[in-house]
Amino acid sequence: MVMGVDDWKSLDSNSTIDRETSNRSSHQPLLLRCCSFSVLRALLVDPWRNPGRNLVFAINGERFELSDVDPSTTLLEFLRTETRFKGAKLGCGEGGCGACVVLLSTYDVSCGRVNQFSVSSCLTLLCSINLCSVMTIEGIGNSKDGFHSIQERFAGFHASQCGFCTPGMCMSLCSALVNADKTNRPEPPHGFSKITVAEAEKAIACNLCRCTGYRPIVDACKSFAADVDLEDLGLNSFWKKGDKHVNVNMLPFYDGTQNGLGTFPDFLKSEIESSIRSCSDPLSENGGNSSRAAADASNPIENVKLAQGRWYRPSSIDELRTIMFSERLNGMSNVKLVAGNTGSGYYKEEDIFDKYIDIRGIPELSVVKRNNRGIEIGAAATISWVIEVLREESEGLQLNERLMFNKIADHMNKVATQFIRNTASLGGNLIMAQRRQFPSDIATILLAAGSTVCIDVGSEKITLSLEEFLESSACDSSTLLLSVHIPFCTPFIHSLSGINGINDITNSKSTKECNLLFETYRASPRPLGNALAYLNSAFMAHISMDEVSGDHFVENVRLVFGAYGCEHAIRAKEVEKFLVGKTMTVSVLLEAIKLLKKTIVPKDDTPHSTYRSSLAVGFLFRFLQPIAQGLAGPLRNVPVVSCSTEEIVEDHNSIIRKSIGLNKEDCHQIYDDDDDDDSHLSSKQVLKFNADYCPVGEPIKKAGALVQASGEAVFVDDIPSPKGCLYGAFIYSTRPLAHVKGFEFKSTLASEKIISVVSSKDIPSGGKNTVVNPVLGVEPVLASNLTEYAGQPLGIVIAEKQRFANMAAKQAIVNYSTENLEPPILSIEDAVKKSSFFEIPPRFYPKQIGDFSKGMEEADHKILSAEVLLGSQYHFYMETQTALAIPDEENCMLVYSSTQIPEATQRTVAECLGIPHHNVRVITRRVGGGFGGKVSKSVHIAAACALAAYKLRCPIRMYLDRKTDMVMAAGRHPMKVNYSVGFKSSGKITALHVDVFINAGISEDISLLLPFSIMAGLKKYNWGSLSFDPMVCKTNISSKSAMRGPGETQGSFIAEVVIEHVASILSIHSDSIRKMNLHDFKSLTKFYEGAAGEPFEYTLPSIFNKFTLYSSYQDRAEMIQQFNSCNRWKKRGLSCVPIIYQVSVRPTPGKVGILNDGSIIVEVGGVEIGQGLWTKVKQTAAFALGQLWDDRIQDLLERVRVIQADTFSLIQGGYTAGSTTSESSCEAVRLACNILIDRLKFLKDSLQQKMGSISWDTLILQAKTQAVNLSASCYWVPDPSSNIYLNYGAAISEVEIDLLTGATTILQADLTYDCGKSLNPAIDLGQIEGSFVQGIGFFMSEEFITNSEGLVVTDGTWTYKIPTVDTIPKKFNVEFLESEYHEKRVLSSKASGEPPLLLAASVHCAAREAIKAAREEFNCTSASPDIFQMNVPATMPVIKELCGLDIVERYLENSLFAQN
Questions:
Q1: Positive or negative CA dihedral for 17, 20, 21, 26?
Q2: Fold match, 1078-1145+1283-1460 / 1148-1275
Q3: How far apart are CA 928 and CA 932, in angstroms?
Q4: CA–CA separation, 400 vs 649, rounded Å?
Q5: Which class does domain 1078-1145+1283-1460 fall in?
Q6: C-alpha closest to that of 539 among 448, 441, 409
Q7: Local structure of 1121: helix, strand or coil
Q8: What is the per-residue pLDDT for 344?
Q9: In angstroms, rounded to a whole number, what is the distance separating the alpha carbons of residues 1068 and 1424?
Q10: Are 1138 and 1104 in contact (CB under 8 A)?
Q11: Fold classified for 366-669
Q12: CA-based end-to-end distance of the chain
C-alpha cells in the first residue's frame, strides 16, 4: 500500500530510509520520499550478492568485468595502468588536490534515478565501484568525439597553463553542473545551467592549481551560471572586451545532457535489476530460492566475497561478525574495514592489506531514523549525505532546531574537500578521532550538540555519549560504530552541562523563556579544503533575560574545543560550571576566560601552542560578548532563538535583538562575523593588443589547451609503460648526518613485493656517482656510506607496481651510526657559529654602490642591525618528479624526463652510467609545472631511474609520491637578514648596508648566484649608497634550488622592510617614503649599470604615481581609516609596492622545417612548462613566414606545430628558466624562418610573375620540386650590449585581518605591469596573475617546517598550504602598460613569468598596515606600536601574535576598569 504524509507522521518514531534514496534534491522532508515498504525493502537488497561475484562496472560507457583484482588497487591506478583513460592525474594521493577527480554514478532501481557525484579516484578502491559507472574527463569530451563545452570554455577563457590540474578542475565543475541541473529550480535561460555564480565559484574551491592564480578558471566556471553577467567575465577568445550585445550564444553551447551526462549505461541497469530479481521475493527473509537461501545460510562468507576471496561485502551485522571472526580472518592484522577509504589520505598505508571488508552494504549502517528526540544517522553515511540530511530534515523543525542543524551542516561543509565528503563516512571520521587522535571538526560540533553513539561490542549494542566514547580506550577490531544520534534541542534541557549540582537550574529571576544559542568556529590555514584547524570549537548555551534589568543569565552551557593539540575534543567543564547561573557581565566573562586558558593547554611540541590557546579565548569571547552586560551589541552569531517563537525572522541580527533584547548602539564594540561572506570574485583586465606583428600580439588560445582540458595531453607518466616495465621508489635518509651501515626491510607484505634494490654500488665501472648542478657543485645520485642530510636518497626499491615500490621503500630499516661525526649543521645560526660557508666566486659577487660610511654620516637618523627572517617555499608543481628510462641497443638509454633542463639531464645520466653522451637521449614533451623545481632536482630523479634501468636491463619508471617529493625537493632559500640604514628627517635614505645569510643546504646548486640576484631586487630604490655582505651557508639539509624569482623575491622584500621601518620611525606613510626614494633615471643608471636602457624605457615612476596620486587611492585610504575606527576586531590595510626586476636573455637554438603538405614543424631549446612558450613560438613562426607576402594574407598559424624537446634533435638546448626562454626561443625561430624566407623569396617572386597570385601550398610544392632546403636552424646569441634589461610594475593590495584569529582576507589587488609589446596578452596575463598568487603563498601562507633532524614535516596537502580559490583577492585587477617600441627587445616584448611574484609583497605590507592599526588601538607595546618586524610567511599565528595574543583579556580588563 502507498502511505501518505499522515501515515508517515504516525510512524515518525520508527521511520527509516535507506541511504540510496537520499541522493536527490527536493524541498520535501527526506523521510517522506519512500512510497512503499516493498520498495524500501527492495532497496536493502544488495546487488553485490550475485552468483558470479565478478567485479562489473563501466568507464565512459564501456563495460569492464574483472574476475581477479588486487583489492588494494585504487580506481586511479586502474585507470592509469589498465585503460587508455589517463586524464585523471595523481597529484597528491591524499584527496587534497583534485587532480584525480572523476564522476561516479550509481543507479537507484526503486525510482530509476541516477545519482552522480565527484570522487577522488586516488583513494577510491576499485572493488568499491561494483555496478557503478565512472566518467573520466575523456568521457565528457575528446578530440575524436568532440569536446564538451566545459573543456572548450576552459580553453577559451585561458584557464589552463601547465594543464596537469585541468582535467580534475573540469570534472569538479562537471559534477556541480550535473547536480545543479537536477534540482527543482526554475529552468535557466537557453545555454545556461541552473548553477549559481556562488556555486560555480565553489565548484573548484577544493582543487589546487599552481599556475593560473585561479581567476580565469573561476570565469570559465561562472560562464555556466544563469545569474552571471557575461560582460563581467575576464579576457576570453569568445568576445572582445567592449563588444556590444555579449550573450550566451557566443559561448560553446551547454546542454545538461551533452555527451551522456546524467545518464547511466543500460547494460549496468539490466545487471543491477537482474541481481535484485535473482534474490526473488524481497519480503521474504532469505529470498524465494530455497537452495540459494540454504547456501547463503551455510556459508555466508563465500556468498559475499570478491577478488578471489580478498574483498568481502557483508549485508548485515551478523554477516560482518561471521566474517571478522572466521578462521581465515580472525587475528589477521592485515584486514581492513572500509567505507570510503578516505582515511588513507591522511594516515598513509605503510603496508599492503591482504583482505578488505566493505561495510557499506550493511543497511543498519546506512539508515536515518527520526523520532521525537532527534535524528539517528548510520555510521557508514557519507559526510555529504549527512549534510543533506541535516538541511532537509531541519525544514520541518522549529526555528531553534532548524538553525542548529543548519549550523552543523554548514560547518561540516568546510571539512575536507567535496570529493572527499562524497565518500568519507561519518563513522570513519569519529573512529579516527577516537582511535588515532585525528583532529576532527565533526567530533567537536557533535559533542557540543549533545550527540550519542551506538556501538556494537561483541554483539552487544551499547549507547554512549560522544564524550564517553571519545574518552574511552582506543577501539579495537571487535568494536563497531553503528550510528550517531543528534538530539533536537528544547528551551529547557537541564542536563545539558552534565555537571554535578547544576543539572536542574532554573533561575528564579528569569521572567522570560530561555533562548538557545548555538555556534561553531574553526581557525585553519585556509577556509575550505583539507586544512586541519589550529583549533575548532562549538558552543551551546541556554540564555534567559530579566525583563526588568535586561541582564542575561546563563542557564546551561556546553563549551567544546578540539584540534588544538589534544587527544580528542573536550568540554571545558570548569568554565561551564563557573558560568551556569551567573549574570553575564564583563567580570564574569573575564574570569571565564582565565579559567579557559588553564583548560586549553596543548600538548608539548604542538606547533603554535600559545596561538591555539588564544583562539579558544577569542571564540568564547565572540560567542558570549553579545550577551555580556556593557558589551552587548548586534552580532552575527546565528543564534537559535526561543522555541516559543513562531515567527521566522531571516535577519540574524534581528533575531538576536528580538530574542535577547540587544540594541543597535555601540556597534564598534562587537565582533562582526563575516565568515560566510558570499561576495563573488570579480576582476578587470586593461590590456592593449599589438597588431603590428600579427598573429604575434593577439591573445590566442594556448597551444594544446583543448587536449589539456580533455586529458589527452601526454605527460611523462601518461606514456604507456613498455613491456616488462618495473617501478622504482627512493629509500631516503631520515637523519641529517650519519654513517649508513646498511639497511634491511621489515617482514611485511609490502616487503615481499621487492624485486631488487639499487644502491650506489650498482654504478658501473667508469661511471660517476654525481648529479651535475647547472651552476656549481655536485651531489651524489645515491649516498654511499655517509648521508649528509635528511631526505638524501640512499637506494631505490624496485617492484612491479609504483604503489608496491612506494610501500616497500617505507619498510626499510636503515642502520645509522654517528660515531666520530660532528653534530649536523641545521640552521643559519649553526653555520655562522661553525663558519660553514661556500666561497662566492668574484664574478658572482655583487658590486657595492657609493660610500656607505659617508652616507651614514649624512643621515639624521639611523637604524642599526635590525633583523628580518624569510622562510622557504616548496615549488608544489602539480606533477611530481618523474622519469621513464628505457634501455636501448648498443648500450644506449632513452630517458623521458619531466625536466626544465634536458641537456644537463643527458650529461648526468651519461656520466653516471659511464657512457658517451650520444648514447643517452632525453625527451621532454611537456612539464606539469616547474617553477625552478624541475631543474637540478629533476636531473637527480632521471639519473637514478636510468641507473636502475641500466642495472636490471629493463624499463624503469619512477613517479615520486608527494611526500617523497616534498622531502627531497628543498625549495626556496631561507634567509636571515640584518640591515643598517641611515636617513634624513624628510625620509630620504642616504645609506643602506645589508648582511644576508643564505641557507644553501648541502651543495652549491644555484646558491652562489643568489647574492647577485638579491642585490638586483634590493636596488629598486635609490639608497644613496648601498653595501652588501652575503654569506652562503653550507648546512646539512637538502640543497636549496631555483624557485620562481630566486633571490630577486627576497631582495625586493628586504627593500620593503627597510622602507616600512623608516616610515615607522618617522611616522610618515610608507608610500611617501617609497616615492621619495624611487630612482630617477640618473640613479637608475648608477645602480643598474648596463641594464637601465634608454630613458623612455623607465616607466616605473609613471606606474607608481598613477596608483598613489589618483583620487581613488586616497579615497580608499580614507575609507580604510574610517573602517578601522569603527571596527575593533577587524582591521584593514592598504599598500602600494613597486618592483624592478632584472633579467638576462640567453643563447637559444631554434629549428624550423616545412613538410610536404605545407605544415610547419618547430623545435626550440625551451621546454613547455605551462608558461605558453609553444604558443608564442607558434605565433612567431606564423608571423615570420607570413612576411613572404607583403600584405601577410597567408594565415599560417594553424599550420604550425611546436614539438617536444629532444637532446638528439636540438643541440645546446640550455635550460628553461629566468622568464626569458620564451622570447629567446621566439627570436631563434624568427631568425630560422628568415633563413627559409631567403631561400623561398626568389622562387616565390618568380612564380608570382608567372602565375599572378600564389598560395603557400603551391609555393611549398614547387620548392620541393626544385630541391629547396626547407629546414633551417639558428642558434641565436643575444647582443651583449642589450642582453640584460629591466622590468617594471607596481601593485596595490588591500587586506582585512581578523584580530581574534589572525586570518587575512585579500579584498582587492590592482596590478600594473610593463609587458612591452606583449607577444600574447592572454599568456602574459596568466603569467602575471599566477605568479602574483604564488607570491601570496610565499609571503602569507606557505609554512615550510622541518623537525629537529632537518626532515621536512610539511610534506603534503594536509600540512602545506598553497593558495586556493578562496584565498585569492576578492577583486583582482590587472593592467598592462604598453611601453614604446624597442629595437633591441624581441619584437619589443618583455618578460612576465617571474617579476609579478615580487608584487605580492604588497599583500604582506598591507597586512602590516592593518596590524599597525590593531596595535595602535590595543596599545600592544610600551614602545611605538608601529615598529615591529613581520617575518615571511605571515601566517595566521604570526599575524595574531603581532596583534596581541592577549588583546581580549586586556580589552575586558580595560572595559571593567572603565565601568568601575
A1: positive
A2: yes
A3: 12
A4: 11
A5: alpha beta
A6: 448
A7: helix
A8: 96
A9: 13
A10: yes
A11: 3.30.465
A12: 72
Helix (H, G, I), strand (E, B), or coil: what is residue 232? Answer: helix
Residue partners of 266: CB distance under 8 A and separation at least 6: none
What CATH number labels 1148-1275?
A: 3.30.365.10
1166 annotated among ligand-binding-site residues: no
pLDDT, position 145: 95
φ/ψ bin of 211: left (φ > 0), alpha (ψ from -120 to 50), beta (otherwise): alpha
Write out 825-868 in H/E/C secondary structure: CCCHHHHHHHCCEECCCHHHCCCCECCHHHHHHHCCEEEEEEEE
Q: Tell me: is residue 604 an annotated ligand-binding position.
A: no
| Burial classification of residue 1125, based on how many CB atoms lie within 10 Å of its CB (0-12 exposed, 13-18 middle, 19 or more buried) | exposed
Distance CA 1138, CA 1314 (A): 12
| Residue 97 is assigned to a ligand binding site | yes
pLDDT of residue 1252: 85
pLDDT at 679: 73
Nearest residue to 1342 (alpha-carbon basis) of 1324, 1359, 1327, 1321: 1359
What fold is seen in the domain 55-260? Ubiquitin-like (UB roll) (3.10.20)
Yes or no: say if 598 and 516 are a contact pair by the CB < 8 Å rule: no
Q: pLDDT digits over 531-545, tens only?
A: 999 999 999 999 998
Is 544 marked within a binding site?
A: no
Q: How far is CA 1403 from the centre of its chain?
A: 19
Measured CA to CA, the distance from residue 1344 to residue 1342 in angstroms comes to 6
Residue 49 is which amino acid? Answer: R
Q: Is 489 annotated as a binding residue?
A: no
Write the pLDDT tens digit of every residue in 283-327: 333 344 433 333 343 344 555 677 677 899 999 999 998 888 775
Say what the pLDDT of residue 1205 is. Answer: 96
1106: left (phi over 0), alpha (psi -120 to 50) or beta: alpha
Which residue positions in the chain have pLDDT lower than 70?
1-52, 278-304, 307, 327-333, 490-513, 632-678, 774, 1192-1193, 1420-1423
Which residues belong to the active site? 1394
Cell triple for residue 178? 550535473
- Edge-to-edge order in the sheet of strand 1371-1377: 682-686, 1371-1377, 1304-1314, 1284-1298, 1130-1144
Q: How far is CA 1263 from the centre of its chain?
A: 52
Task: Answer yes or no: is 1315 a known binding residue.
Answer: no
- CA distances in angstroms from 445 to 409, 432, 578, listed in the order given: 10, 15, 22
Give the residue extent of every domain in the chain.
1-40, 55-260, 366-669, 1078-1145+1283-1460, 1148-1275
In this prediction, residue 1362 carries a pLDDT of: 97
Please indicate if the annotation marks 85 as binding a ligand: no
Does the pTM of the predicted model rise above 0.90?
yes
Q: Where are any strands of DSSP class E within 711-777?
A: 726-732, 738-745, 756-758, 771-772
* Cα 528 → chain centroid: 10
Contacts of 729 (CB under 8 A, 6+ apart): 796, 797, 799, 802, 805, 806, 808, 809, 958, 960, 961, 964
DSSP 3-state of 443: helix
CB-CB contact of 1100 with 1290 (8 Å): yes
Cβ-based burial of 1260 (10 A; exposed 0-12, middle 13-18, buried ≥19): buried
- Could you give the CA distance from residue 885 to residue 939 in angstroms, rounded to a whole number? 12
Q: Kindly state the helix (H) or strand (E) to which residue 81 belongs, with its residue range.
A: helix 75-82
The per-residue pLDDT for 478 is 80
Q: Can you give the pLDDT at residue 734?
A: 97
Structure confidence by residue, pLDDT tens digits, 802-859: 999 999 999 999 999 999 999 999 999 999 999 999 999 999 999 999 999 999 999 9
Is 1339 a known ligand-binding residue? no
User: How far apart, in whole angstroms, are the C-alpha atoms of residue 291 and residue 1172?
Assistant: 67
